[in-house]
Amino acid sequence: MRKSFLPVLTVVAAIFVLWYAMAVVLNAAWAKDQAKRAGVELSFSELVADTWAQDKPKLPAPHQVAAEIWETTVEKKITSKRSLVFHSGITLSSTLLGFVLGTVLGIGLAVGIVYNRVMDMSVMPWVIASQTIPILAIAPMIIVVLNAVGISGLLPKAIISMYLSFFPVVVGMVKGLRSPDMMQLDQMRTWNATASQQFWKLRLPSSMPYLFASLKIAMAASLVGAIVGELPTGAVAGLGARLLAGSYYGQTIQIWSALIMAAALAACLVAIIGLIQRVTLKRMGMA
Amino acid sequence: MTAAQANETAAPVISAKGLNLTFQTNDGPVHALKDVNLEINKGDFVSFIGPSGCGKTTFLRVMADLEKPTAGSITVNGVSPEEARKTRAYGYVFQHAGLYPWRTIGGNIRLPLEIMGYTKSDQDERVKRVLDLVELSGFEKKFPWQLSGGMQQRASIARALAFDADILLMDEPFGALDEIVRDHLNEQLLQLWARTNKTIGFVTHSIPEAVYLSTRIVVMSPRPGRITDVIESTLPRERPLDIRDTPEFLEIAHRVREGLRAGHAYDD
């Protein structure tokens, strides 16, 4: 932990330096334009100061984003429509529901593929094909179709999350459930174990390292799905809605703060899975 | 001894007649077993020895119903290997211990018992008994990675002994272990065999191991895999480790070596 502290800090510092530099480069044109109209000449330090403090910068500086996040999380009530915590909560709920649905679907399909020859031959190409369709194209259709049958709110968004998150689970679990070697399977055979005993006592425990690796990817994908799912719903609430509203009104600071929030949310969720993984695999003697 | 009992002991535990097994591979057919005839009697300790590719492991796997012969017949306890497997007539020990890392030693031994539906109290009692048998008492709660390779292999033997199978099939169980551990386990295995009166089929490629352990040594040779010699051991059942220095022992070892040579095993 201590060893990685300095390198991590160095990288973070480098990102900030680059970010501030890019903010100057990208926002300088606007600052110079404004100065020209006002008929004043900007010194270099004035120019830099201006590029880091614009209202609608092309690229907001880190401290502007940080201030916006502080304002919309700590200083706003979480029931407020302008609270990022409120919006994050909405996105989080459909992320988690979609993640659970995707995991269940993914494991279900993987079990089918491993145990059923017909599914083994037929399902995987469809699973892969499903992921080649851009989610942005299919998301509005899912929302519209589900709305037509009277399902709205959380579930349509969760289904888009599920659509993205089941894929890594299928791929990982097929590999995981097939990870026991011939000897272990022969051994089960010598004990005349049933298929379900073989599954519960050998295949499923063996697949755990693969499952957790998949779950991490699935969780991140699920969050992306939830945000994408919020875009075509008319931007009512959620981080996706904040992104959309921000881009309507050119509120780049708002966009960036929503983006950072989404990234932080994803990092936390993946970290939680990582923690469960560490504890579980350690207890299983597999870490 | 009644007539029925006498009959029972007389009937061979394993009987193979004209056994053939040909694998179809991309390079053409491979004769893993060709015209193999053998009878193993109750209480025998039979070793199968030969160079790799001689079909010794395949033969053991046929007995265990892990491979199907392409011709000939084989019975285990008087029935087909498949029926014998389904009645859990044998315990099989693989070259690698194959203990599940997520189960304790006790949990690993319990595994086949759970599968076979023994009651909880019966499981406890059996786990304790076989751990005692392989001298691993006190290690029940340890995980496999906490044990040495030799102890892990002992645990895997305990697992094969935990249910009531009269036959123990062992496929190079000590092949991956060093000489010293191997000697020790050989000694223990003999004691265990004497105490339990199991019928043991034992695959090895070590001549001293085969001679030290067996009542009969089956010498096999490759391409095609076949039996070239069956040697009845004249050694007593009680065998201390230093029996390996006696002329009698060396005599048998010599015969095994001759048998292997006669099979042109080392031509290429």
From TrEMBL, chain A:
<feature type="domain" description="ABC transmembrane type-1">
    <location>
        <begin position="84"/>
        <end position="277"/>
    </location>
</feature>
<feature type="transmembrane region" description="Helical">
    <location>
        <begin position="210"/>
        <end position="233"/>
    </location>
</feature>
<dbReference type="Pfam" id="PF00528">
    <property type="entry name" value="BPD_transp_1"/>
</dbReference>
<keyword id="KW-0812">Transmembrane</keyword>
<keyword id="KW-1133">Transmembrane helix</keyword>
<dbReference type="InterPro" id="IPR035906">
    <property type="entry name" value="MetI-like_sf"/>
</dbReference>
<keyword id="KW-0472">Membrane</keyword>
<protein>
    <submittedName>
        <fullName>ABC transporter permease</fullName>
    </submittedName>
</protein>
<dbReference type="GO" id="GO:0005886">
    <property type="term" value="C:plasma membrane"/>
</dbReference>
<feature type="transmembrane region" description="Helical">
    <location>
        <begin position="126"/>
        <end position="148"/>
    </location>
</feature>
<feature type="transmembrane region" description="Helical">
    <location>
        <begin position="253"/>
        <end position="276"/>
    </location>
</feature>
<feature type="transmembrane region" description="Helical">
    <location>
        <begin position="90"/>
        <end position="114"/>
    </location>
</feature>
<dbReference type="GO" id="GO:0055085">
    <property type="term" value="P:transmembrane transport"/>
</dbReference>
<keyword id="KW-1003">Cell membrane</keyword>
<keyword id="KW-0813">Transport</keyword>
<dbReference type="InterPro" id="IPR000515">
    <property type="entry name" value="MetI-like"/>
</dbReference>
<comment type="similarity">
    <text>Belongs to the binding-protein-dependent transport system permease family.</text>
</comment>
UniProtKB/TrEMBL annotation, chain B:
<keyword id="KW-0067">ATP-binding</keyword>
<dbReference type="InterPro" id="IPR003439">
    <property type="entry name" value="ABC_transporter-like_ATP-bd"/>
</dbReference>
<dbReference type="Pfam" id="PF00005">
    <property type="entry name" value="ABC_tran"/>
</dbReference>
<protein>
    <submittedName>
        <fullName>ABC transporter ATP-binding protein</fullName>
    </submittedName>
</protein>
<keyword id="KW-0547">Nucleotide-binding</keyword>
<dbReference type="InterPro" id="IPR003593">
    <property type="entry name" value="AAA+_ATPase"/>
</dbReference>
<dbReference type="GO" id="GO:0016887">
    <property type="term" value="F:ATP hydrolysis activity"/>
</dbReference>
<dbReference type="InterPro" id="IPR050166">
    <property type="entry name" value="ABC_transporter_ATP-bind"/>
</dbReference>
<comment type="similarity">
    <text>Belongs to the ABC transporter superfamily.</text>
</comment>
<keyword id="KW-0813">Transport</keyword>
<feature type="domain" description="ABC transporter">
    <location>
        <begin position="16"/>
        <end position="247"/>
    </location>
</feature>
<dbReference type="InterPro" id="IPR017871">
    <property type="entry name" value="ABC_transporter-like_CS"/>
</dbReference>
<dbReference type="GO" id="GO:0005524">
    <property type="term" value="F:ATP binding"/>
</dbReference>
<dbReference type="InterPro" id="IPR027417">
    <property type="entry name" value="P-loop_NTPase"/>
</dbReference>
